Amino acid sequence: MAGLGRIAVAIRIRAVPARKADLSAAKPSLMEASGLSPIRWLKHGFSARAGGVSTAYGGDALNLGHTKHDRRAAVEENRALLLRSLGAVDAKGTPWPLVCLRQIHSDVIHRLDRPPEQLLSGDGLVTDTPRLVLAVQTADCLPVLLVDRKRKAIGVFHAGWRGTLARIAEKGVGAMRLHFGSKPEDLRAAIGPGIASCCYAVGEDVRERFHAQFVYAGELFREVTESDPVREKYPLLFMTARAPGHGDAGRILYLDLREANRRQLLAAGLARTSITALDFCTACRTDLFFSYRAEKGVTGRQMAAVGICDV
Questions:
Q1: How many domains does the chain fold into?
Q2: Is residue 1 part of a domain?
Q3: N or C: which end of the chain has fewer CB within 10 A?
Q4: What is the 3-state secondary structure (H, E, C) of 135-168?
């Protein structure tokens, strides 16, 4: 992409041992974005696959989503392990409230000043309230964190292709400005692990929708033509009634979801140096992450979590 360059990978991985009171010896691994780690009042992390108590997805899995394959008790213990690993606990070791969403692939963002009384539907959360952990679940979609260094405000957003098309990251910056007076120059962003352009094949309809919304859409897709000996030998068998250029045989489109969200953050006023991306592909690295696509839906969920402490 001319003039803009790519974000450097910047992560720190840490393993925090479980407390003696835990029923397991699990040691969750969390990834931190180096662009956010220096902020002393911030707790944040992107969970990986290993270090939990779930056995539904290969043993010792840190599944943080209430999926149909896993036990609810195991997921709740995993969530407690996550909070302790973040250091999101009070003086007595009691975890802070964890707020999640019923994610609907939307641009709906909620502001919170206390834990909600019921599960909210949407794909974004913002707050400036300390000792409250906001989180989104992912298993290929991208998690995006926003942090206002000066106003001690935070946001977390779930960006699949539909949420990205709806500009969830860009609107997240707008929500921070609306609720907390955040200025783009004070914001720091981190894009967590998700499916990368090497594996994220999409249909022509997705490309058409992106072209209708973004002037730079052509830079977000790459096209690969696969060789098929049978098709080449017997082309008449694969003819369609569609016009040329539509539904071309052997052509695959790949979407760069990470770059799409980065471009939204840039468009919202963030500097390129204020955006950190964790350059992992969940579909390539099922040894490290859950991937809905690579595992054909039988998989767990990561979490991206963020909270404010009293420092």
A1: 2
A2: no
A3: C
A4: EEEECCCEEEEEEECCCCEEEEEEECHHHHHCCH
Residues 30 and 174 in one domain: yes
Taking the alpha carbons of 119, 120, 126, 128 in that order, is the dihedral positive or negative? negative
Residue 49: closest CA among 64, 37, 68, 34: 64
Residue with tokens 């098929």, as numbered in its chain? 228
Q: How far apart are CA 198 and CA 71, in angstroms?
A: 33
Percent over 90 (pLDDT), the chain:
81
Q: What is the pLDDT of residue 231?
A: 55
User: The tokens of 195 are what?
Assistant: 């499916």
Same domain, 88 and 221: no
Q: Which of 28-32, 106-110, 211-215, 263-267 has the lowest mean pLDDT?
A: 28-32
> Which pLDDT band holds residue 235 (cuts at 50, 70, 90)?
low
Domain of residue 212 covers: 204-252
- Contact assessment for residue 3 and residue 271, using Cβ atoms and an 8 Å cutoff: no
pLDDT of amino acid 239: 56
Cα-based distances in Å from 50 to 15, 82, 224, 295: 10, 11, 34, 16
- In this model, does residue 248 exceed pLDDT 80? no
Statement to judge: residues 22 and 51 lie in one domain: yes
Please report, for the domain that includes residue 186, its CATH number. Answer: 3.60.140.10
β-pair partners for 201: 254
